[in-house]
Design a protein that fits this description.
The protein is of the alpha/beta class and about 220 residues long. The chain is built from 8 helices and 5 strands; from the N terminus they run βαβααβααβααβα. The chain has one domain: Rossmann fold, CATH 3.40.50. The protein has a 5-stranded parallel sheet with strand order 2-3-1-4-5, sandwiched between helices. The structure holds P1-(5'-adenosyl)P5-(5'-thymidyl)pentaphosphate. P1-(5'-adenosyl)P5-(5'-thymidyl)pentaphosphate binds next to α1, α2, α4, α6 and α8.
Length: about 220
């Protein structure tokens, strides 16, 4: 993270990443409860989205035909949404000393557009530098599970909340395998920032691992 420090200490910026149906939303709810209990003021948010203009861009990305956009257009739309998200939601919260937990951030563009759509890691990194400089999360959890299992969970979840936002779920099995490999590659290259978690475990066990890593790496005492 690279932000101007004011009089208050900055909050921590945590992201959860992974393929479809990895359990990010489930884990963020549990984590927000744990942080609240520990008295840590927290904002939960998501990408694409997380700010009014970014939510408008979200619907362009997650709805409609699979072939709707060129891969680079998808990357640019994600970064347009991300700039709004960072400036309008994330930075103000962090400078106010609150913690921010985001369901996806820039690693999703590297994995989905860089690896999934074959744009390559380097182009997305250049785009990141252009739009956000060195701004990055303090800690990132990559929830990893086999593609079939994640897609089956996402399909069940669609039954629960409606399947309008399923554009990426309809992409090929190969696409999903490439992005899974992409997330693991990101974690290997950024061991200080990233931790890979086996997302085939029960929700409670995944949460225990997340809290233990937060305690160790960010020096707090979540139970
Ligand atoms: N995208 C996003 C890009 O291509 N580039 C980018 O730069 C960005 C930021 C929207 C899409 O945009 C793409 C990626 C996405 O396709 P999204 O809204 O986060 O992103 O969509 P999904 O990742 O598809 O969100 P999901 O809701 O499917 O996945 P979650 O949040 O990881 O999973 P969750 O918690 O909703 O759980 C799914 C189901 O599994 C169950 C839950 O109860 C639920 O029914 N479940 C478990 N079951 C068994 N064991 C566990 N441990 C479980 N945890 C959850």
């Amino acid at each position: 993270m690279s932000l101007q420090r004011g009089s208050k200490p900055l909050g921590n910026f945590i992201t959860l990443e992974g393929g479809e149906g990895a359990g990010k939303t489930t884990q963020i709810k549990l984590l927000a409860d744990g942080l609240k209990t520990a008295g840590i003021d927290t904002v939960t948010t998501r990408e694409p989205g997380g700010a009014p203009a970014a939510e408008v861009i979200r619907s362009l990305l997650v709805e409609g035909d699979v072939e709707r956009w060129q891969p680079m257009t998808e990357a640019l739309l994600n970064y347009a949404a991300r700039l709004e998200h960072v400036r309008e939601t994330i930075e103000p919260a962090l400078t106010d000393g609150r913690w921010v937990i985001s369901d996806r951030f820039s690693d999703s563009t590297v994995a989905y557009q860089g690896f999934g759509h074959d744009l390559g890691r380097a182009k997305i990194e250049r785009l990141h530098e252009l739009v956000l400089g060195s701004f990055e999360p303090d800690l990132t959890f990559v929830l990893d599970l086999p593609v079939d299992e994640g897609l089956a969970r996402a399909e069940n979840r669609d039954g629960e909340k409606g399947a309008k936002e399923d554009r990426y779920e309809r992409m090929s099995q190969d696409f999903h395998q490439r992005l899974r490999d992409g997330f693991l590659d990101i974690a290997r290259r950024n061991p200080e920032r990233c931790a890979v978690i086996d997302a085939t475990q029960s929700p409670d066990d995944v949460q225990k691992e997340i809290r233990s890593l937060i305690n160790n790496r960010l020096g707090v005492s979540l139970t």
